[in-house]
């Protein structure tokens, strides 16, 4: 028999209400005061009848980033079963993610399910596609920056630190030194196709065998890089968001620095990223579909045209904002 784990949950709204706790957990929970720096709250309209019945309110609160602000709340200590009950209570507008309390303690909290909507200061790291290659307007990140900053020019910032050719290993090594001066609340990692590239040497079938008979690949070596990025983000109390990869036209890709790119490997990377993010409660913004079968939106089979970058931005904006 496996025992239940203990979970620390920061509550700033209706989960502090003893009536809600009794309805969800069968008892009023012991709580202790806590605060969460770097956040404020905004109202959220609730339409779920069960949630309204439990809380007695049709407007709840949701967290939003704000440099210099702080949200007062309470810490609840929950079992596996109680945490699952809290998950079921929170509507789809919320998702459970890790935060660092003012005390320095790590805890779960329910954040906005749209990971870029509550952001104030975003740092983007990644490869040439995130860098904006083939688009003089800065690519999809340039579009995101314009829209994000326009929402509140005085407070919002976006820093594009992507470097062409980067892999997740490169990004995980280089990013920690770049964050302190930019004070990010959101770290957006563009996980591109460089991590799916295979050596050009060998028979044509070798790369396909690396991808596995079912078109999947073993990307376990990327776990350490992603774990390191998650730890780096949490160290700055920033939300980690992983975006990508985008679709590629294998028939038009060229070998680059001894590497080749296949759709099977890129698809396998997509599956791996989604699985890792789900297992670690990290946001994943899938960028595959907007370019799928749209060869006209790719310059060389890999890099989007200006129109392709626009399509990626519009898709990401719908998912994340």
List keywords for this structure.
321 residues; Hypothetical upf0131 protein ytfp; Rossmann fold; 2 domains; 5-stranded parallel β-sheet; 3-stranded antiparallel β-sheet; 11 helices; 33% helix; SGNH_hydro; AIG2-like_dom; GGCT-like
Strand sequence of the main sheet, in spatial order? 7-6-8-10-12
Number of DSSP helical runs: 11
Helix/strand-derived class?
alpha/beta
Rough outline: elongated
CATH superfamily of the largest domain: SGNH hydrolase
Report helical residue fraction. 25-40%
pLDDT < 50 stretches = 205-217
Under CATH, the topology of the largest domain can be stated as Rossmann fold
Overall domain count: 2
Q: Class of the largest domain, according to the CATH hierarchy? A: Alpha Beta
Q: What is the element string, with H for helices and E for strands?
A: EHEHEHEEEHHEHHEEHHEEHEH
Q: Which value, in Å, is the CA radius of gyration?
A: 21 Å
Quickly give the CATH architecture of the largest domain.
Answer: 3-Layer(aba) Sandwich
| Sheet having the most strands | 5 strands, parallel
Query: What is the terminal-to-terminal distance?
Result: 43 Å
The number of strands is: 12
Mean pLDDT: 91
How much beta, percentage-wise? 15-25%
InterPro entries: AIG2-like_dom, Ester_Hydrolysis_Enzymes, GGCT-like, GGCT-like_sf, SGNH_hydro, SGNH_hydro_sf
Pfam families: GGACT, Lipase_GDSL_2
């Amino acid at each position: 028999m496996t025992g239940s784990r203990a979970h620390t949950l920061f509550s700033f709204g209706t989960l502090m209400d003893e009536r809600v706790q009794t309805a969800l957990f069968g008892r009023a929970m012991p709580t202790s005061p806590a605060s969460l720096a770097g956040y404020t709250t905004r109202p959220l309209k609730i339409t779920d009848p069960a949630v309204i019945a439990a809380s007695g309110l049709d407007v709840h609160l949701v967290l939003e980033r704000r440099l210099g602000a702080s949200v007062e709340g309470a810490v609840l200590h929950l079992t596996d079963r109680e945490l699952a009950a809290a998950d079921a209570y929170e509507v789809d507008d919320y998702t459970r993610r890790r935060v660092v309390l003012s005390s320095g303690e790590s805890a779960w909290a329910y954040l906005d399910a749209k990971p870029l909507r509550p952001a104030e200061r975003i740092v983007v790291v990644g490869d040439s596609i995130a860098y904006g290659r083939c688009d003089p307007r800065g690519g999809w990140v340039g579009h995101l920056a314009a829209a994000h900053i326009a929402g509140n020019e005085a407070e919002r910032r976006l820093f594009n630190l992507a470097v062409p050719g980067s892999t997740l290993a490169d990004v995980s090594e280089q990013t920690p030194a770049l964050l302190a001066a930019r004070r990010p609340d959101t770290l957006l990692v563009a996980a591109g196709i460089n991590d799916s590239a295979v050596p050009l040497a060998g028979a044509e079938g070798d790369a396909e065998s690396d991808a596995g008979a079912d078109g999947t690949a073993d990307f376990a070596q990327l776990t350490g890089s992603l774990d390191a990025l998650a730890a780096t983000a949490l160290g700055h109390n920033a939300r980690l968001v992983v975006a990508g990869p985008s679709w590629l036209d294998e028939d038009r890709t060229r070998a680059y620095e001894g590497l080749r790119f296949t759709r099977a490997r890129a698809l396998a990377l997509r599956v791996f990223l989604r699985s890792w993010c789900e297992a670690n409660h990290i946001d994943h913004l899938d960028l595959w579909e907007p370019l799928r079968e749209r060869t006209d939106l790719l310059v060389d089979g890999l890099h989007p045209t200006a129109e392709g970058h626009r399509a990626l931005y519009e898709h990401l904006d719908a998912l994340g904002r």
